[in-house]
Design brief:
Blueprint (H helix, E strand, L loop, with lengths): L3 H7 L23 H11 L1 H4 L7 E5 L6 H18 L4 E7 L6 H12 L10 H14 L3 E7 L1 H8 L2 H11 L8 E7 L11 H9 L1 E3 L5 H15 L7 H11 L5 H17 L7 H10 L6 H5 L3 H17 L3 E3 H14 L7 H14 L3 E4 L9 E4 L5 H13 L2
Parallel strand pairs: 1-4, 1-5, 2-3, 3-4
Antiparallel strand pairs: 6-8, 7-8
Length: 398
């Protein structure tokens, strides 16, 4: 029997290290984000100069792919390094609020950094938070908490977690301030309908807004990634220019890097020793800026199956919306294909609300012209057939 795996492993590739093109990689150099890094350094240096004297809260906001998470992670690494040099026990935790969808899950993730085997059930959020503070106090530790996708969390659950953490620190006037926060989102609504006045006053003074990358900035970012990830002189400069032109409408570096990765994979598939501009154009036709690997990898498997069902029913009906009942029937069929036991209607309805909050689908209540009231499901940003193809490919390679 022919060993296709060994064939692939022994084939030459234009890519020398795919990790440098992944969403998980945070480079030591972030082109065109020096100003934002310096702003964070100036704001948070008090944690090093006077540990425990104050608790800081900053908001980083801006469009997708503008380097918000990368800047926060790189800054966290640098401040931890500076703290270690001075004997300060500063720790950082990055939490994605799309995945950890409640204050309890967020607090549990924090606690498990210090107590890895702490049980999942049996305590209230307030109890878990108090345990965190006790551990920090007992061990003279400080924490920089990065709450990513905070706008999504606030939209779903409200801003209570920021209020609780702020109140907790404010109540410790004569004790060390142990927790500081960086919140990250596309656009975080800062008004009295969301935050209490004291929290609002603090956050409004500490907002760092990220602009979209320009064509030249995208080019500089890609050029740096090419040096790290590709063999020498295999990516044509014209290819980078094509990718930058495609991605410049959104100013989205993540999308540009994904196009570069796909263009490289295209070259490998065709046994080409050069990544030519046409491979970038093919990469664009094979993907969509809304189809992001990091979003779909965070979704449970049955959420992915439900999305396949929604895409299929919308493609077949040629309609803008389908009823939740129609999608649920198709979901049962998709589950049969994958030998999965379908979930109950109540669970499916909750998934629809969650996927709508993610912005992956749109949902609304039916109006005039339809009998009864039901939930209508649509896909506004991605063609249904493209979403289906993407999900099928994603599942096959998971």
């Amino acid at each position: 029997m022919h060993d296709f795996m060994e064939d692939e492993l022994n084939r030459p590739s234009v890519i020398k290290n795919e990790y440098y093109l992944s969403i998980d990689y945070v480079p030591d150099n972030l082109p065109h984000r020096d100003k934002e890094l310096r702003t964070l350094a100036q704001g948070f240096k008090v944690l090093i100069n006077s540990p425990g004297k104050t608790s800081l809260k900053y908001i980083i906001e801006g469009p997708v792919g503008t380097g918000k998470t990368a800047v926060a992670k790189l800054f966290a690494d640098k401040i931890i390094s500076s703290a270690n040099l001075r004997g300060i026990n500063l720790h950082q935790i990055h939490i994605n609020c799309r995945i950890n969808k409640s204050p309890y899950l967020i607090y549990l993730k924090i606690l498990r950094k210090f107590r890895p085997n702490f049980p999942r059930r049996g305590h209230s959020p307030e109890e878990v938070l108090q345990m965190i503070i006790e551990i920090l106090d007992q061990n003279d530790l400080y924490l920089l908490l990065i709450l990513d996708e905070l706008d999504y969390f606030i939209k779903q659950k409200g801003a209570d977690i920021l209020y609780d953490l702020t109140r907790l620190m404010d109540d410790r006037l004569n004790e060390p301030q142990r927790i500081s926060i960086i919140g990250i989102g596309r656009r975080i609504r800062l008004d009295e309908s969301v935050f209490d006045l004291s929290t609002l006053s603090t956050l409004q003074q500490n907002i760092i807004r990220f602009d979209k990358y320009t064509v030249q900035e995208l080019y500089d970012i890609l050029k740096y990634r090419v040096q790290l990830a590709f063999e020498e002189d295999v990516v044509m400069d014209e290819t980078l220019q094509v990718i930058c032109d495609i991605a410049s409408e959104r100013g989205d570096a993540r999308y540009a890097i994904e196009l570069l990765w796909r263009a490289g994979k295209q070259a490998d598939a065709l046994n080409s020793k050069k990544v030519i501009p046409d491979y970038a154009r093919r990469a664009k036709s094979d993907t969509h800026p809304e189809l992001r690997r990091e979003i779909f990898s965070a979704l449970p498997f049955h959420n992915q199956l439900l999305l396949i069902a929604a895409a299929r029913i919308l493609k077949e009906s040629c309609s803008a919306y389908a009823t939740i009942g129609e999608v649920e029937d198709m979901y049962h069929s998709v589950c049969e294909e994958y030998n999965e036991e379908p979930r109950a209607h109540t669970q499916i309805w909750e998934w629809v609300q969650d996927l709508s909050a993610h912005g992956i689908i749109s949902s609304k209540r039916s109006g005039q012209g339809q009998r009864g009231q039901t939930t209508l499901i649509g896909i506004s940003d991605v063609p249904a057939d493209l979403l289906e193809q993407f999900l099928l490919s994603f599942i096959e390679n998971r």
